[in-house]
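Incident log, structure service

09:12 report received: a user says their structure output differs between two submissions of the same chain.
09:20 pulled the input from the user's history:
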Amino acid sequence: MGENVKHTPTPWNTNSPDETLILGPDRQIVATTLQDEEDYQANYDTRAADAELIVKAVNAHDEALATLREAYTALAFAFNRIQGSARSRDGELCQTFGKVRGRIENVFRKVGVPL
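09:34 re-ran on a clean worker, output below:
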């Protein structure tokens, strides 16, 4: 989902008598983990945990991406300092920085948000 796509504002929660409901900040229904209204037993054992996981992920999403963006920038800065220093040219460390930055780039690509 790109940054221009609007979604229900956060924080989301599961403060509902029905453990399958995911609610927005104004207690509006955002989603449900009930897979089949005709078969209440379907995914019975996991749906409350699924709802909690979704809420945790959504509520942490913006902060997690902001933190990854900061880490990406800090790694670039550290790479340039190490690479440019006449006293220290730690190739292994620079390679590690590059790999981590590549993984961060992949995360942003997967969620469709520009880095």
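09:41 both user submissions now match this output. Likely a transient worker issue. Closing.
09:42 reviewer note: Helices lie at 47-84, 91-111. The radius of gyration is 20 Å.
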